[in-house]
Amino acid sequence: MVCATDSVAHLGTFPRRRALVHGAGLLGLFGCALLHELGFAEVYCADPIEARLAIVSQFGGIPLENGTDLTGTVDLVIEACGSPDIVPMSFAALRVGGVFVTVGLVHKDSAMI
How do residues 59-98 score in pLDDT, each as one tens digit? Predict the structure, then answer.
């Protein structure tokens, strides 16, 4: 959680319109709450486990529904799921000048590619 907090602490006057958090586990839920408190208008959260998505709104997030297209519209993406498979979708979602932060690749066997 300290990594997530520190990662977004340096945003300064960065636009805070739309964010995407990958993963609705502890790190992802914390990320949703943090971004919501930092003033992001929309904080979407993606997770394949429906039970996790069911509580995202309690942390200031919006559950990302299958088929929702965020291509080129996201200011900040936080990877909090530990899966390198989401990296291409994350970069596609970012607007020009957007920021990608990874905090979920914490396992000893984790790899970005």
Answer: 999 999 888 999 999 999 999 888 888 889 999 999 999 9
Q: What token pair was written down for 101? A: 């932060």
Query: Do the bridges between strand 18-22 and strand 74-79 make them parallel or antiparallel, or are there none, so unpaired?
Result: parallel
C-alpha pair distances (Å), 76 with each of 49, 54, 72: 22, 22, 11
Q: Where are the alpha helices (DSSP H) in the chain?
A: 2-9, 26-37, 50-53, 87-93
Which single residue is written with the structure tokens 């300290």?
2
Q: Is the dihedral of CA 74, 77, 82, 86 positive or negative?
A: positive
Give the CA distances from residue 40 to residues 33, 44, 55, 77, in Å, rounded to whole numbers and listed in that order.
10, 10, 19, 12
